[in-house]
Amino acid sequence: MIKGALLQSNYIPWKGYFDIINQVDIFIVYDTVQYTKNDWRNRNRIKTPTGVKWLTIPVIQEKLGQPINLTRVADSRWRRKHWKAICQNYNKSEFFKNYYQCFEEAYLNCDQVMLSAINLKFIKLICELLGIKTEILDASDFIVSGNKSERIVEICKNAGVQHYISGPAARDYIDETVFSDNHIVLSYMDYTGYLEHPQLYPPFDHSVSIIDLIFNTGPNYKQYMKSFS
């Protein structure tokens, strides 16, 4: 049974995002839905000595309802700014030296101007570092219509997905009958029970970007993710 998942395009997401990717055969970046301001689409958080810090990619929102895949970056200076912040706050982490070169290259040579393309670049890089082999597609590759649940089901059918794993927040809007009527098994990701990993600058925070896990645990990251257990 082919498993699939679909999540909105996010910038350097937290570990739970990658746990879903690692549990499925096909992962679809939902880049055709509306860009939402002050959300995870163009920003994420890192740990610093003074608390969590937001890293935000400046974007141009030309109109309400603008989809993520048509959202353009406003200023290319974000690349050096973000990399400088990451270096300043993670250069003392145990495994920073093991990974800094690939992240430095990704940031400083990032010439994409569309937000979703930037997010996909980093998602694929992190999947490669974690050894995740899941096939990754864009929702914009599919032509679908209908309400939220119907669009997801149509994407699943077009991609050959027979078992759909959803994020838990989708319980608020998913119509489960649409999945059962189309013979697609539906289940929800459980984000509870994560172990705390070594982390600089207490108190511990699970919800920061996965780069925190990578720099602090290196090859031991599997111990702190659910999909590798």
Task: Throw out a few tags for this protein.
single chain; 229 residues; alpha/beta; two-stranded antiparallel sheet; 9 strands; globular
Describe the structure.
- With 229 residues, the chain is an alpha/beta fold.
- It is 33% helix and 17% strand.
- The protein has seven helices and nine strands.
- A hairpin with a 2-residue loop joins β3 and β4.
- The relative contact order is 0.21.
- The mean pLDDT is 96.
> What percentage of residues falls in helices of 4 or more residues?
25-40%
Structural class: alpha/beta
Strand order of the largest sheet: 7-2-1-8-9
Strand portion: 15-25%
Largest sheet: 5 strands, parallel
Gyration radius from CA atoms, angstroms: 18 Å
Average pLDDT rating: 96
Tally of alpha and pi helices = 7
The helix-strand sequence is EHEEEEEHHHEHEHEH
Q: State the distance separating the first and last CA atoms.
A: 21 Å
Q: Please state the overall shape, judged from the principal axes of the Cα atoms.
A: globular
Q: Would you count the extended β strands for me?
A: 9
Low-confidence stretches: none
Secondary structure: elements and pairs:
Blueprint: E1 3-8, H1 15-23, E2 26-30, E3 43-48, E4 51-56, E5 59-60, E6 72-73, H2 78-90, H3 96-108, H4 115-130, E7 135-138, H5 148-159, E8 163-166, H6 176-181, E9 185-188, H7 211-217
Parallel strand pairs: 1-2, 1-8, 2-7, 8-9
Antiparallel strand pairs: 3-4, 5-6
